[in-house]
Amino acid sequence: MREKFQWLSAEAGLDAERAALERVFSGQEEAGLLFWRPLQPALVMPRRLSRLPGFAVAEADCRALGWPIALRDTGGEPVPQSPAVLNVALCYAVPLDDNEQTRIDTAYQRLCQPLCDWLEAFGLDAGLGEVDGAFCDGRYNVNIAGRKLVGTAQRWRRRHSDGRYVVLAHGAILMENQRDAMVEVVNAFYRACDLPAVCRASSHVALEEHLPQPWQQLDALAGHFQRHLASHGLQLPA
């Protein structure tokens, strides 16, 4: 990678991910890896949530807390984005020998295994699974000692030219401890929309709570991705 990461607004980061997916979809690249860090806080969520009763009130409440809402193409639930977060976007054309029945799980593994290997290299207890009280919870969270560090999501397209699937697998890593403010804004959104979900700061963990100066370890993370993908016949651009 030429740069450790790009500083982008939430909207520009989402646009950069769409562009990375488009390069693979159009055949310009076989695979791509993007690291980006938000310039300002935002609460990013699926477009479908903008149709909820109470969304306008929720949007105003979140903005008042310093977290304006941005809408994304993937599913899931609200996710706080801020300069405390590193976003990892992995795009690739699914190899022809991949099992179509398990391609979604395989894509999560290709995203999560390099992250787990990276954390374990620092002696951290990394694993995958749901965490009660975590925002945007899922079975492919990357956790440290049972607390959520990385949230994950996917977006898929299928090429008409060759029928191959193209995927964007995304991970949001909490690098710096902003757990309290993040949980506060997610819960504020839920309350305004009269939804029952309640998130807890104690269900999350920031990497800096276990690893000093985590932003200095991104070259190592990129290396884990390059080696893992190469072992599956996927080459990242130089």
Concise synopsis of the structure shown:
The protein contains 5 helices and 10 strands, in the order E-H-E-E-H-E-E-E-H-E-E-E-E-H-H. With 238 residues, the protein is an alpha+beta fold.
Task: List key phrases describing it.
BirA Bifunctional Protein, domain 2, 7-stranded mixed β-sheet, 3-stranded mixed β-sheet, 5 helices, 30% helix, 25% strand
Characterization of the model:
- This is BPL/LPL catalytic domain-containing protein.
- Residues 27-219 form the BPL/LPL catalytic domain.
- With 238 residues, the chain is α+β, with helices and mostly antiparallel strands.
- The protein has one domain (6-230): Bira Bifunctional Protein, Domain 2 (BirA Bifunctional Protein, domain 2).
- The protein has five helices and ten strands, in the order E-H-E-E-H-E-E-E-H-E-E-E-E-H-H.
- Strand 9 and strand 10 form a beta hairpin.
- Helix 2 (55-64) packs antiparallel against helix 4 and helix 3 packs across helix 5 (218-230).
- The longest helix is centred in the middle third of the chain and has 19 residues, at 103-121.
